[in-house]
Write a structure and sequence with these properties.
CATH superfamily of the largest domain: inorganic pyrophosphatase (n-terminal core)
Helix content: 40-55%
Strand order of the largest sheet: 3-2-1-4-5-6
Strand content: 15-25%
Bound molecules: guanosine-5'-monophosphate, manganese (II) ion
Order of helices and strands: HEHEEHEHEEHHHHHEEHHEEHEEH
Shape: globular
CATH topology of the largest domain: inorganic pyrophosphatase (n-terminal core)
Distance between the termini: 46 Å
Structural class: alpha/beta
CATH architecture of the largest domain: Alpha-Beta Complex
Radius of gyration: 20 Å
Number of helices: 13
Length: 336
């Protein structure tokens, strides 16, 4: 059977469905989860979304009454939902560690059939069915393909399409990255034909910035941005004190790493934010320069060639020093 049909048949056969996605949710993980939930509902079934931690505030509006059960807040509830499920969707991630250690353990222990739909390279072999497409810009695009390829285009409507549209927008930097193809635009066309109000999605997601958030971003660029390694590497680092000064909330630094990458001559940008004694790292690069290997080799992370994440358990200063000492051999100018 075609994979798309097999996935839809699994939905129709299931009694209790849970949709999971990765830690530190972004537009694609929230968008693909909500789009999948509403597709499942359109098929006459229901599901619960369980995520490791809370949704960033700029896309809270997308939930529109849907409950996302958050492992950080409601651990016991997530455990019982996953234990009792007979089908678990694993969206926008490729291995159990992307749920965090504890929720990852719950996934591994669950008896449910596990279906991965994802666009990160090197998936783990822990899923019963895998739709793994690293060449595709976003998981949200893959959910639209699932709907079309399973012969359910007639179900596509504004409620399913809106979160999927947002997922594509955020994972492609608003259609800028090389992962965008003519197929992406074709599918966006279908979303618009079926009622998605794109101007409204942009307005609701990106025109509600807080003054403190803007000031934090200005401060980060003015005071905390360094360019090094033959001016090819940009680092932005924000300490816990910096974040508190501007009343930081989750999502406030979203996209800042891409601002650093936009500097003339810069081909790698790294954003570091300190929280609870750890440093969360975001890596971005241009063209053939690969950052997921650097993130995986040294910062317990991974991701895509040009967009990756990781974590450091050193202090912020020590993390900056570590990057400075390792970066030249990864990212310095070469003759190649
Ligand atoms: P971001 O910088 O936006 O948090 O993440 C960029 C990309 O790297 C995303 O595709 C995300 O899924 C992936 N990523 C972020 N953090 C981690 C991590 O700790 N481990 C792995 N394997 N991938 C990550
Ligand atoms: Mn994604």
């Amino acid at each position: 059977m075609k994979l798309a049909n097999e996935i839809v048949q699994s939905i129709l056969d299931a009694e209790k469905i849970v949709i999971t996605s990765h830690k530190s949710p972004d537009g694609d993980s929230i968008g693909s989860s909500l789009g999948m939930l509403r597709f499942i509902q359109a098929l006459g079934k229901d599901a619960k979304i369980c995520h490791p931690d809370s949704c960033p505030s700029f896309i809270e509006w997308l939930k529109d009454g849907v409950e996302i059960v958050d492992f950080d807040e409601s651990q016991d509830r997530v455990i019982s939902l996953m234990d009792e499920a007979d089908l678990i969707f694993c969206l926008d991630y490729n291995g159990s560690n992307r749920l965090g250690k504890d929720m990852g353990g719950v996934l591994l222990a669950a008896d449910a059939k596990k279906i991965m739909i994802d666009h990160h390279p090197y998936p783990e072999d822990i899923f019963h069915l895998s739709a793994s497409h690293p060449e595709v810009c976003s998981t949200s695009q893959l959910v639209i393909e699932l709907i079309l390829k399973s012969g359910n285009e007639n179900l596509l409507n504004q409620s399913i399409g809106t979160p999927l549209y947002l997922g594509i927008v955020t994972d492609t930097g608003s259609f800028r990255f090389s992962s965008v193809t003519s197929r992406t635009h074709e599918l966006i066309g279908k979303l618009l034909e079926n009622g998605v109000q794109q101007a409204e999605v942009h307005e609701k997601s990106f025109n509600h910035n807080r003054l403190d958030q803007m000031k934090l971003r200005g401060f980060a660029i003015a005071e905390k941005l360094e360019v090094m390694v033959d001016e090819e590497l940009a680092i932005v680092s924000l300490s816990e004190v910096d974040l508190e000064r501007f009343n930081y909330i989750k999502g406030d630094t979203e996209g800042l790493v891409n601002v650093a990458l936009s500097i003339e001559g810069v081909s790698v940008a790294i954003m570091m934010t300190e929280s609870d004694g750890k440093v969360k790292m975001s890596f971005r690069s241009m063209g053939s320069i690969v950052v997921n290997k650097f993130a995986g080799d040294h910062f317990d992370g991974g991701g895509h060639m040009n967009a990756a994440g990781g974590i450091s358990f050193l202090s912020l200063e020590e993390t900056i020093e570590k990057v400075k000492s390792l970066a030249p051999s990864y990212f310095g100018k070469t003759d190649a």
